[in-house]
Design brief:
By secondary structure, the chain is of the alpha+beta class. The chain is built from 23 helices and 37 strands. Strands 1, 2, 5, 6, 7, 8, 9, 10 and 11 form a nine-stranded mixed β-sheet that branches.
Length: 878
């Protein structure tokens, strides 16, 4: 049975039993920023298990994409070296959210494995938590598992919990016996459980039935739930008669592809096989991670992705391949997995380009560092040593940009260890030097006084890729000759560059600078003085040196989106002037890749009709695809022609004019589209007030508009789903819901008022006499201020003569009301009473002689404030 069939049959089995088939969530966890990657099927259901979220179904089944390559669940170092470790894998699961429990979960698992998939019961073993008699009984009596094949395990092995507190419960695992031939230790007749590799856990059934409190007590959950995980790769190995996951149809085509590509054979050499397995696994992980929106970087998830990719690339170099190869395999992954994950088809080319670019960076820079490491290891071995000195490790890290974990993996291949203590000592010294001298990168011209005005030739209007020579290099607030070391920061000035420096509201370009000696990511581009463009960079590998020739590559996709938004900004300015009047002037702007922001002078927010007219006018210009023209001319000539200056821009006598004939003409040094059609759909997404007489518009264009529309479509679908109404009836459904809410609010109000009578009697019984004056000073719960006022006034009326002070605490605040009968107002003033007690609850208040109210932010002191009323009445009333 092929893997696609296994996955499908699993999902269909549970669908037939009332489970909703839920798509896999992305590997980038949207709901849990503390999670590096999605690593279990239950990740997307966490809020359901916690009772925070509700959905239309109470049973679900999934095939979840998972990656374990960092953090608590880090299998990276074992990948390729064992039969069953992978970074990327799929977890099949069935879930019950307060629906069925142990009986059904056990029954489903056994029936699916033994009847649907035909797994021999004689090969299966079951573990249960040592105290879970119920589960043990179900396996034995309900399912029919032999008693001697049910093994009780302790809390470490068979009790699951989300954290130190919260949902938890016993679990039950199903294990498969591959037989003596699978024993890594050659056991001929070992018994279960044994860690030799013969027995494999394939399915874990978690019975979430308790809530562990801070004292460690296990309190029964009101709705016990089921969370299961069945490893698809492991099940495939069983059903396809393979001991290793890598011999299944999930991996064998990739192994064959890699072997053919690299000119080697699989199955002839363990070291070669290990390299091919690492490549096959890592290209799967990279394809899915990048497809889900994660890109290689030097921190966080991007760093883990980069590490995965470079481990795969490293195996290629070990097998003798000199250049990029991994990217050619990503399409093969797509072809293998597209039936289950059709979104991969849409990102095929994008993934290919990202991986190829990373491979080029690796091959031209890291390869140099690896060569240096090889020399160091050879020197260590020639002196009969087995330990690479810390100073050498730090040099590889600081000068050549080789990450420590990468060095450690290569050294392990030679059975060498690292002097980590020595490395850390050198690292601490560097940090101390940096603390003493670093002043941060400066945008002020003072740091760049050595640079001549006009030192940089900007090529970015014609190209996004060009070579330039480093004519200025700055680090730690001073000019330097070279900068090296992974993660080192510097400012680079080139004699010519395609990078646009932030100005006129347009953000600076990002991208990379590379040379044979080093590579750096450009994280900002700015201009501290006229004609000087500074690239703020972080070293990825190697070094940059004054005088080096580097290849500058702008992030072209990002630049195109910026250009669309910048041209869109000009069209918006013109449309505002046409619609609102020529009094409209620009008062600020931001042109970024994801949106544009435009501040303008106007006295009122846009009406719906004005927004429609502005958007319609701009989109007509877009569809007509007018050319966008740029010319250089004298400033006076440009102004005479009617060109409008953008806010915050400084102009020389010779200026650049960007125009859409008969529509818009601006003085602008930014980058633009070549035609209005390249702007794409223009959509206003927000409007607000910035200051008196200054309004703000935020808008999107092109892909940004598409993303917005997609988001709106999903929102409408979700609203319709939740309201159980077609789109054509959404407003009607909302009206009905609001009417229902109004009815419920009215009913609640009636209920509150109906309970006021009994509350009133209780208050009257609680009155005390102070200096001959009747006083009620009581806390009342579950009331709002209007009802509390009504209670106070009714109590005062029933008393005839007296003082009533009521208080309540709600949403972290204290509220107080005071009322005084008419005959006492000569001695007692409601406003003065409440002013004194309000300070106790951290607030202030006042009011009339007969009635006053106050609030405070210290509800915990409400009782103290109420008690103080008696003292106040005693002092003032005597």
């Amino acid at each position: 049975m092929n893997t696609n069939d296994i996955r499908t049959r699993f999902l269909e089995y549970f669908e037939a039993r009332g489970h909703e088939r839920v798509p896999s969530s992305p590997l980038l966890p949207a709901q849990d920023p503390t999670l590096l990657f999605a690593n279990a099927g239950m990740n997307q259901f966490t809020d359901l298990f916690l009772g925070i979220e509700t959905r239309t179904y109470s049973r679900a089944t999934t095939s979840q994409k998972c990656v374990r390559a960092g953090g608590k669940h880090n299998d990276l170092e074992m990948v390729g070296r064992t039969r069953r470790h992978q970074t990327f894998f799929e977890m099949l699961g069935n879930f019950s959210f307060g629906d069925y429990f142990k009986k059904e979960a056990v029954e489903y698992a056994w029936e699916l494995l033994t009847e649907e998939f035909g797994v021999s019961a004689d090969r299966l073993w079951v573990t249960v938590f040592e105290e879970d008699d119920e589960a043990a009984g179900l396996w034995k009596d309900h399912v029919g598992v032999a008693a001697d094949r049910i093994v009780r395990m302790d809390e470490k092995d068979n009790f699951w919990q989300m954290g130190d507190t919260g949902p938890c419960g016993p679990c039950s695992e199903i294990h498969y016996d591959f037989g003596p031939g699978a024993s890594d230790e050659g056991h001929a007749d070992c018994s279960f459980p044994c860690e030799c590799g013969r027995y494999l856990e394939i399915w874990n059934l978690v019975f979430m039935q308790f809530d562990r409190d801070e004292a460690g007590n296990l309190n029964p959950l009101p709705k016990p739930s089921i969370d299961t995980g069945l490893g698809l790769e492991r099940l495939a190995s069983i059903l396809q008669g393979k001991i290793s996951n890598y011999d299944t149809d999930l991996f064998s085509p990739l192994l064959e592809r890699a072997a053919d590509l690299l000119g080697v054979s699989y199955g002839k050499s363990e070291s070669t096989d290990t390299s091919l397995r690492i490549i096959a696994d890592h290209v799967r992980a990279a394809t899915f991670l990048i497809g889900d929106g994660i890109i290689p970087s030097n921190e966080g998830r991007g760093y883990v992705l980069r590490k995965i990719m470079r481990r795969g690339m490293r195996q290629g170099t070990l097998l003798g391949w000199p250049g990029p190869f991994l990217h050619t395999m990503t399409g093969h992954v797509v072809d293998l997995m597209k039936d289950a994950y059709p979104d991969l088809v849409n990102t095929r080319d994008y993934v290919d380009r990202i991986v190829e670019n990373e491979e080029k960076r690796f091959s031209t820079t890291v390869a140099v560092a690896v060569g240096k490491l090889e020399e160091i290891m050879a020197d260590v071995e020639s002196h009969d040593g087995n330990r690479i000195p810390g100073k050498e490790l730090f040099k590889l890290y600081d000068t050549f940009g080789l990450p420590l974990d990468f060095t450690e993996e290569i050294a392990r291949e030679k059975s060498l260890v690292l002097d980590i203590e020595g490395f850390n000592s050198e690292l601490d010294k560097q940090k101390e030097r940096a603390r003493e001298s670093w002043k941060g990168h400066s945008r002020s011209a003072g740091v760049y006084e050595s640079m001549a005005e006009g030192a940089t030739d900007f090529l970015g209007y014609e190209t996004t890729e060009a070579e330039g020579r480093i004519i200025g290099l700055f680090a730690e607030g001073r000019a330097v000759q070279q900068v090296g070391g992974f993660g080192a920061e510097a400012e680079v000035v080139l004699d010519r560059t395609p990078f646009y420096a932030e100005s006129g509201g347009q953000v600076g370009d990002l991208g990379s600078l590379t040379s044979p000696e080093g590579a750096a990511s450009v994280t900002d581009t700015f201009s501290p003085a006229l004609g000087i463009i500074v690239h703020h960079v972080k070293l990825d590998v190697g070094r940059l040196e004054l005088g080096d020739t580097v290849l500058g590559r702008v992030d072209a996709r990002r630049r195109r989106r910026i250009a669309a938004n910048h041209t869109g900004t000009h069209l918006l300015h013109a449309a505002l002037r046409r619609t609102l009047g020529v009094h409209v002037k620009q008062a600020g702007s931001l042109v970024a890749p994801d949106r544009l922001r435009f501040d303008y002078t106007h006295y009122a927010p846009l009406t719906a009709e004005e927004i429609e007219e502005i958007e319609g006018g701009i989109n007509r210009v877009v569809l007509e695809n007018h050319p966008v023209e740029t010319r250089e001319m004298a400033l006076g000539e440009a102004i005479e022609l009617g060109a409008i200056a953008f806010f915050g821009e400084k102009y020389q006598q010779k200026v650049r004019v960007v125009s859409v004939p008969d529509i818009s003409m601006e003085l602008c040094g930014g980058t633009h589209t070549s035609a209005t059609g390249d702007v794409g759909l223009f959509k206003i997404i927000a409007g607000s007030s910035v200051a008196a007489g200054v309004r703000r518009i935020e808008a999107v264009t092109g892909l940004g508009s598409y993303d917005r529309l997609e988001s709106d479509e999903r929102l409408l679908d979700e609203v319709g789903r939740r309201l159980r109404a077609p789109r054509s009836d959404l407003t009607g459904a909302i009206d009905r819901l609001l009417a229902q809410q109004k009815e419920l609010e009215d009913e609640l109000k009636k209920l509150k008022h109906s309970s006021a009578g009994s509350r009133l009697e209780g208050l009257l019984k609680a009155q005390n006499s102070v200096s001959g004056i009747s006083v009620i000073a009581q806390r009342v719960e579950g009331v709002d201020v209007p009802l509390m006022r009504e209670l106070a006034e009714n109590a005062r009326a029933r008393m005839g003569s007296g003082v009533v002070v009521l208080g309540t605490a709600d949403a972290g605040k204290a509220m107080l009301v005071t009322t005084v009968s008419e005959d006492l107002r000569g001695r007692l003033h409601a406003g003065k009473i409440i002013k004194q007690i309000a300070t106790i609850v951290g607030g202030s208040g006042g009011g009339r002689p007969d009635f006053a109210q106050a609030g405070g932010k210290k509800p915990e002191k409400l009782d103290q404030a109420l008690q103080e009323v008696y003292n106040i009445v005693a002092d003032l009333g005597s």
